[in-house]
Design goal:
- The complex is a heterodimer.
- By secondary structure, chain A is mainly beta.
- Chain A is built from no helices and eleven strands.
- In chain A, strands 2, 4, 5, 6, 9, 10 and 11 form a seven-stranded mixed β-sheet that branches. A four-stranded antiparallel β-sheet of chain A has the order 1-3-8-7, with no helix packed on it.
- Chain B contains no helices and eleven strands.
- In chain B, strands 2, 4, 5, 9, 10 and 11 form a six-stranded mixed β-sheet that branches. A five-stranded antiparallel β-sheet of chain B has the order 1-3-8-7-6, with no helix packed on it.
- In chain B, a hairpin with a 5-residue loop joins strand 7 and strand 8.
- The model of chain B has no long low-confidence stretch (mean pLDDT 96).
- The chains are: A mainly beta, B mainly beta.
- Chains A and B meet through strand 4, strand 5 and strand 10 of A and strand 5, strand 9 and strand 10 of B.
């Protein structure tokens, strides 16, 4: 009974490169959330997706960031032309129904380092 | 926008001492959730409180939800080194299916 699977666990990129982070939700969960955690800081909501739909992307920077959750395959968070300030841990979480009444199950996170 | 505030930001205690973290929301919450993140780890769900004035216990951990459903606390009795980590409270955003997290309280323990 695998939980939320994220990969890669660690990713190093140089400024200007692209970062792709993948997340497979827990089995049976169709609601996916991405959170960003800067070093020594809290969890900031980025985006909420269901299959083939972006429900809420109010926490996503307007430029360079995008997310998708295709009909088949994992959810992907894509960061184009990375900058040093993008260095952070990116956590994916899933829930059975929308978070609020339901709790979140988090993946182990993808830690992005931008050189 | 809706905010959830936690205090203190950091707490250092001697092993065996008690620890409390407090959570305050700018709005009434339908429920409040608590998560623990070990150093280098990921947030793990601890508990959800739904009713006004609710108190729940998990061994040495006691969780409370305020009468007005705007605040909550987590109290750990006789801390152990395994309690080290950051404790986050989180509440649902009204009208949206997402959680807003407090900044967390980072607990360190002197053995």
């Amino acid at each position: 009974n695998a939980g939320v699977m994220q990969n890669p666990r660690h990713l190093v990129r140089r400024r200007g490169q692209e970062a792709r982070l993948r997340c497979s939700p827990m089995k049976g969960h169709s609601h996916v959330y991405w959170y960003r955690q800067l070093p020594e800081e809290g969890l900031k909501f980025m985006v909420y997706l269901q299959k083939e739909n972006i429900i809420d992307e109010s926490g996503m920077p307007k430029e360079r960031f995008s997310a998708e959750f295709p009909k088949e395959g994992p959810s992907i968070l894509r960061i184009q032309q990375v900058v040093r300030g993008d260095s952070a841990a990116y956590f994916c979480a899933s829930s059975l129904r929308g978070a609020g009444a339901n709790v979140l199950t988090f993946g182990a996170g993808s830690r992005l380092t931008v050189l | 926008g809706q905010q959830v505030m936690q205090i203190p930001q950091y707490q250092h205690v001697q092993e065996g001492e008690d620890f409390t973290t407090y959570c305050n929301s700018s709005t009434t919450l339908s429920n409040i959730q608590w998560y623990k993140q070990r150093p280098g780890g990921h947030p793990v769900f601890l508990i959800q409180l739904v009713k006004s004035g609710e108190v729940k216990k998990q061994k040495r951990l006691t969780f409370q939800f305020g009468e007005a459903k705007k605040n909550s606390s987590l109290h750990i009795t006789a801390t152990q080194t395994t309690d080290v980590g950051t404790y986050f409270c989180a509440g649902p955003v009204r009208g949206a299916q997402k959680l807003v997290f407090g900044q967390g309280t980072r607990l360190t323990i002197n053995p």
